[in-house]
Prior knowledge:
alpha+beta, 2 helices
Amino acid sequence: TSIGQEPEILIDICRWGDGLWFDGGELGQLTKQLARKPSAKIGPQQEVITFLGEVFKPVG
């Protein structure tokens, strides 16, 4: 599924609901996007982005 903005980030989701997989650099891209401009849209994607941003805060 695609999440994030400018550019969207394609992450892999387990079809059995057991997790998410990020390829190299994708988690960093997502947390940088979150630090730049959090979305006003509240929904499942934003909840995931917010959670990941809190857990994996970018350095610097």
